[in-house]
Amino acid sequence: MSLIGVTCQYRGSQDFRPLWGSNGYYLESLTSCGATPLLIPPLPADRLGELLQRLDGVVLTGGPDLDPIHYGEEMTPGQGEVNPQRDALDLAVARLAAERGLPLLGICRGIQVANVALGGSLHQDLAQAGFTSLAHAQKSPPPVLAHRIDLEPEAGALREIFPESFRTNSYHHQGLKDLAPGLQVLATAPDGLIEAASLRGHPFYLLVQWHPEMLPEQRGLFASLIRASQAVAA
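RESULT FIELD:
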């Protein structure tokens, strides 16, 4: 049985005690595909490295904006709230997984963090950047779908799960700007925004901009992560 790490999300509380946990969609998606999820809280770098050595794979979860200081920019008016501990955790996991060949699935914020961790940058606000024709930050809850996604000719693992074009949800206002060295685009939205990417030469480093954990019909992405984790461990 694969042990899959899930990066924690920060939620404040009324009495100001920090709460670190996970959206249940991620845990349900992993357990339904046969994996055992383990939450990864903020940890010192050495302990985080030791923990990842014991895992078979990781999921970089969604969440708030990444501080643009990590890609050399000042905050613009469209930039949202950031959390330094969360940024440090996710960036470290993204880099270590890339370096060690640890299977990784990055979701929404996860694709953005991985792109920055490997040397890319982000649009701090899609509307300010001119992406105004699609509802990238949809208002409706699941199972409503926001827009179409088109696969690239070399779409890798996505072609095993999705047709050439499909519709999905969308809950973000930031997106990939400069693609990190080593990343390959797998899918785009009709307005040209990058919706999926992978790391060349890595056993499984798959990044998507939407939220498959909210859609039971897309759990094949989690099953693919688990299969990759089993293959690497064999």
